[in-house]
Amino acid sequence: MKYGMMGLGIIGIWMLIWRLFKTRGGQPMTKDQWMQNQAEAQVAEELATSNIQSLDFSAFSESMQRQAKEIDLAMSIAKIQAAFDTGILTSEELAIAYLKEIEKTQEYHAVLALNPDVLKEARLYDQARANGIHLGDLHGIPILLKDNIGTKSPLQTTAGADVLKTAVRDEDAILVQQLKAEGAIILGKTNLSEWANFMSQPSINGFSTLGGYTRNAHGDFDVSGSSSGSASGMALHLASAALGSETAGSIISPSSQNGVVGFKPAWGRVSTEGVVPIAGSLDVVGPITGCVQDAALVYSGMQGGFDARGLKWSKDALKGKRVGFVTDHMLEEDIREGTDAITDQLRLDLESAGAEVVEISIDQEAVALDILPVLFNEMKSGINAYLGSLGEGAPVKTLSEIIAYNQEDLKNRAPYGQVLLEQSDEAETTEADDQALIKKNRTLTREALGKALQGVDVIVSLGTELTTVYAMAGTPALTIPAGRRETGEPIGATFLMRENDTADLFLYGYAYEQNRK
User: Fold this and answer.
1) What is the pLDDT of residues 57-72, one digit of tens each?
2) CA proximity to 490, closest of 297, 224, 250
3) Nearest Cα to 151, choosing from 295, 264, 285?
4) Cβ partners under 8 Å of residue 172, min gap 6
5) d(Cα 454, Cα 470) in Å, to the nearest integer?
6) Which of 25, 465, 479, 507 could potentially form a cystine with 492 if both were Cys, beta carbons 3.0 to 4.6 Å apart?
7) Alpha-carbon dihedral of residues 173, 176, 180, 183, nearest 10 degrees?
């Protein structure tokens, strides 16, 4: 039975939920069938709830109508800053351009809420720049945040849930404070899989009762989750960068599915204080961007232990390096149609970058690891602590009260049910037992990753094939667009290294990005 989970528990929380669904009497299905079902549900929009929020453009409608300037919304942050410096572009003009694009693409449901003060803030940053004040590499850069990342009024933090739509925070999450100190402007909040995709089974990726169904930016494909809106929004060029959160695959998977760059930091490197949690021993927040350099810049601005300005970017960084390509870790039913062609091209692109590609294996016990008990063990205490931090601004005080609130109107508050919330609320594992399980799992996965890295410089796999390993090990992961299937559906190449190798991870990823055909 352990190996029956191998291909299922490694694709992120939504695939773990698939495993639950299958063991509870659901019909067996391949990964292709599962993802097709997800995509069809996201497109059909059959369960639109009465609580879906509409975007409010009233605070900037006049500015949007007045501005006719054509702006390349796909510019990198470095190019944007150069345009700022030469006076070709202002932060206010850029923010207006993004707002106009958000208005045009509302059918994708990528954005859940807008910051009504964004243009006022942009003007302040423009004035500061004119006066010779430069706060950092993100000065005047508009960023979208996944709506489980805490922000003070006037932006709410809802996790997509109706119960939190009136919740009030007194201050921004620490990582948001750090971004603002670097000059970043918070443009708004993105839609997500409600409660970061740990609410129900079967779940639909990218669905929340407040935001509806997030759509994939490239067509009728699964958007993936839970950072669905952040990934789709970046592919639609709705901001200069976005932030997602990940417990197991929730940055890497939607980034891969939407053809953008996603970086999952090593656990503990970015503060998660003020972020709605699932499992504190796994949760991280990271950037979703249009290119590797932007991901490094945003990550650098989120915390003080990493400085992207010290990186020596080179398209030759992979020359002479050994890349371990992971094989023999997938069940046949989980290998998607057309994967061989993408794998072959990935190998060729790595080799054209100067790398030697060798096949390696990962300890199957680490790949097949069941991390669901950790999530059940930690969600209740984490949610209760988060609600407690809101003080008088909390509409409810406990996970039990959230469940009771939803139960009063399941059709509009929990149309897919809330069995995972209920199971988390019922979990009775002691803190000591939970910590022992975490230690055991982390030791197992780190040893497996370390063994796989012996003799190679970096590990590469497709999409989220090794989610369980890097999530439980607490090590960083970087996904970069690798190509598309014949249908046009994107897929990413995911680079893995040890927890202290973030700089090299970015540099190797950049070299692959620059040499990709």
Assistant:
1) 999 999 999 999 999 9
2) 224
3) 285
4) 150, 151, 152, 180, 274
5) 16
6) 479
7) 170
Rounded distance between C-alpha atoms, residue 245 and residue 233, angstroms:
15
Characterize the bridge pairing of strands 477-484 and 490-496.
antiparallel
| Closest listed residue to residue 289, CA positions, set 249, 234, 251, 228 | 234
* pLDDT of amino acid 16: 55
Residue 31 in tokens: 């990964």
Place 390 in a pLDDT band, splitting at 50, 70 and 90: very high
What's the pLDDT at 6? 26
pLDDT mean over 286-304? 97
User: Using N-to-C axis directions, what is the helix angle for 502-515 and 292-302, rounded to 10°?
Assistant: 160
SS3 of 262, please? strand
**H or E element at residue 359:** strand 356-360
Model confidence pLDDT, tens digit, residues 119-151: 999 999 999 999 999 999 999 999 999 999 999
Mean pLDDT of 239-268: 97
Q: What percent of the chain has pLDDT over 90?
A: 83
Residue 252 contacts by C-beta under 8 Å, 6 or more apart in sequence?
12, 246, 262, 264, 463, 464, 467, 477, 479, 492, 494
DSSP 149: B
Measured distance CA(94)–CA(98) in Å, rounded: 6
User: Are the CB atoms for 367 and 327 separated by under 8 Å?
Assistant: no
The rounded Cα 120 to chain-centroid distance in angstroms is 28
What token pair was written down for 63? 């500015």
pLDDT, residue 477, reads 98
β-strands 356-360, 284-289 pairing:
unpaired
Closest by Cα among 129, 152, 174 to 304 = 174
Give the β-pairing of 261-264 and 284-289: antiparallel
Mapping DSSP to helix (H, G, I), strand (E, B) and coil, where does residue 318 land?
Answer: coil
Which tokens belong to 175? 């990582």
3-class SS string, 271-292: CCCCECCCCCCCCEEEEEECCH
Nearest to 259 by CA among 221, 297, 210: 221
State yes or no: pLDDT of 162 exceeds 60. yes
Cis bond leading into 226, ω under 30°?
A: yes
Residue 28: predicted pLDDT: 64
- Cα angle value 465/467/472 (rounded, 5°): 150
The catalytic site residues sit at 146, 226, 250
* C-alpha angle 481-483-486 in degrees, rounded to nearest 5: 145
Q: Which residue type is seen at 145?
A: L
Return the residue matching tokens 């839970």: 226
Tens of pLDDT, residues 5-58:
222 222 355 555 554 454 444 556 778 888 888 999 898 866 667 899 999 999
With CA atoms as reference, report the closest residue to 314 among 507, 505, 78. Answer: 507
Q: What Cα–Cα distance (Å) separates residue 426 from each residue in 57, 247, 364, 422, 429?
A: 42, 20, 31, 6, 9
* This prediction's pTM: 0.95
- Residue 299 CA to residue 175 CA, distance in Å, equals 10
